[in-house]
Amino acid sequence: MKFKQLFCLSIAALTFQLSAQPILNIKGAIQSQDLVCPSFKKSPPPPVASINSEFEEVYSLPEDDLLEIIRKNSTKPNQVQIQLPSHVAGNPYKIGFWGDSHSAANFMTEELIKSVGLDTDTVLPSFIPPSMGRPGVRLPIRKYCQSPNWKFNYSYTGVNQEFYGPALLKLNSNSPDSFLWIDFRSKNQPSNNLKKLTILFSKTIQMNAKIGIQVDSRAEEIIDIKNETGSQLIIQGDNLFGVVKIRLIQGAISIDGFVPSYETPAKVYLDTFGIPSATVKGWQSIQKDYVDSLQVARDYDLVILEYGTNEGSHLPFDGNVYGNMLRDSLRQFRAIYPQASCVLMGPTDRGIWYKKTYLKGKKKLAKPAPTPDFLAYSKIHQEITQIQSNIGKEFECSSWSWQDAMGGPGGAYTWIKQTPPLMARDLIHLTVQGYQETARQLSQDINLPQLLSLKANK
Predict the structure, then answer these.
(1) Sign of CA dihedral 66, 68, 69, 74
(2) What are the beta bridge partners of residue 123?
């Protein structure tokens, strides 16, 4: 691979100083207890505006004749040939899954695990993003509790001119007594499995911070954190642990992520980095030198990048602009992960509802509505998938068409009519069953069970 050699060197003339790593050595064997989160008063919802209109709106799907045409023109996804990089025999292999709201809820990755005959107790995360509290995100942890005064910085927005780690977001607070409690145990396995946890901190405006750390039901320890790039806190001991409670006492902290180390290694490591509203542009804010400063492993065997839906929402869509953004983003991706096999997962099919406005209580249209182009977004998503296929080859990334897996343009309308529906009512997202069906099809098309079996036998 040309990228395996080309990106062994840093593409940026940036240097980051590694700070000293405070280490918290815990003592005594204590079994983790289930978290009970404090309750917070929620602001009352705004009053619902009264509706006093002489009109009523009715939303409908395409007529049956169009749906029949869509069915006749349905396509089947092409199988993707993937060759995993060589790796040390006997080591668990690692998969990284980045994307937007489609992957954030973790339904697809959970089904991918099942598709290879494993479960969430034997497939574990090697990196956990600090996306606790972000609506639409489900993480592979047992539970978390969080005070309301945390904020996010997102790489895809480009608002904050800073560098990001693998999570492509940061979790920040400068409010005293902000807390974040995390139960790192498996959802189905209550026994402790952590032997070490590294908390990654990012540089903030304030020079230092003081935090309290409580591990399980042990006494809280006060730790000084240097707000420098590469700051870490390592928690370890002779005994296993599961629950870690973080409390900000003074200053400000910005968290890049959590790196767990387990007593019982996983059979496969699978990391999910889905962020609702994200686009592939977020990869332009990730730099090799910065990731080097975090001292996190980058040995993914397979990386899946699931983007395109949010890019296609910005109208009018410009394929040239999108193509340039994708190319710049993949260039940065390859600087960080030159060895990994890569699959670009195109956007779903997308539909629209036909809105008709009637005089209230009557069957007469208040105003004739033009028939919409029911395939308007379908055509954009088809173009995005084709661009991904073309540009992906420049970076040795395969392409998998999610839209084709749904039957091609218009598949959203057939998926919403399934029993149970595979498409959500917004005709953008899928139902849980739809994401599970996608995962099974993806696993089959990239030969995931066979890839894992082949790798295990090396």
Answers:
(1) positive
(2) 268
Residue 296's alpha-carbon distances to 235, 260, 299, in angstroms, are 16, 11, 9
Percent of the chain with pLDDT over 70: 86
Among 166, 175, 169, 174, CA closest to 205: 174
- What does the pLDDT look like over 272-312, one tens digit per residue? 999 999 999 999 999 899 999 999 999 999 999 999 999 99
Is the predicted pLDDT of residue 425 greater than 90, yes or no?
yes
Are 24 and 233 contacting, i.e. CB atoms less than 8 angstroms apart?
yes
Residue 203 makes CB contacts below 8 A (sequence gap 6+) with 227, 228, 229, 231, 254
Q: Is 134 exposed, middle or buried (0-12, 13-18, 19+ CB in 10 A)?
A: buried
- What is the distance between the alpha carbons of residues 35 and 181, in angstroms, rounded to a whole number? 8
- Between 40 and 365, whose confidence is greater? 40
For residue 77, give both structure tokens: 């996804």
User: Rounded distance, CA 146 to CA 78, Å?
Assistant: 43
| pLDDT mean over 207-216 | 92
Query: Please, are residues 140 and 125 in contact by the beta-carbon 8 Å criterion?
Result: yes
- Asked whether 22 and 234 are in contact (CB, 8 A), the reply is yes
Is the CB of residue 256 less than 8 Å from the CB of residue 202? yes
Q: Are 94 and 268 in contact (CB under 8 A)?
A: yes
- The helix (H) or strand (E) run that includes residue 456 is helix 448-456
Q: What is the mean pLDDT of residues 134-154?
A: 96
> What does the angle CA 54 – CA 60 – CA 64 come to, to the nearest 5 degrees?
145
> What is the C-alpha to C-alpha distance for residues 190 and 195, in angstroms, rounded to an integer?
15
Question: Which residue do the tokens 């591990």 mark?
Answer: 215
- pLDDT band, very low/low/confident/very high, at 183 (cuts 50, 70, 90): very high
The architecture CATH gives domain 2-28+62-456: 3-Layer(aba) Sandwich (3.40)
| Composition of the chain by helix, strand, coil, percent to 5 | 25, 25, 50
Q: What is the mean pLDDT of residues 428-455?
A: 90
pLDDT at residue 263, as a whole number: 93
User: Residue ranges of the alpha helices (H) in 31-129?
Assistant: 64-72, 101-104, 107-115
Per-residue pLDDT of 326-348, as tens digits, reads 999 999 999 999 999 999 999 99
Question: For position 63, what pLDDT does the model report?
Answer: 72
Beta strands 208-215; 268-274: pairing state: unpaired
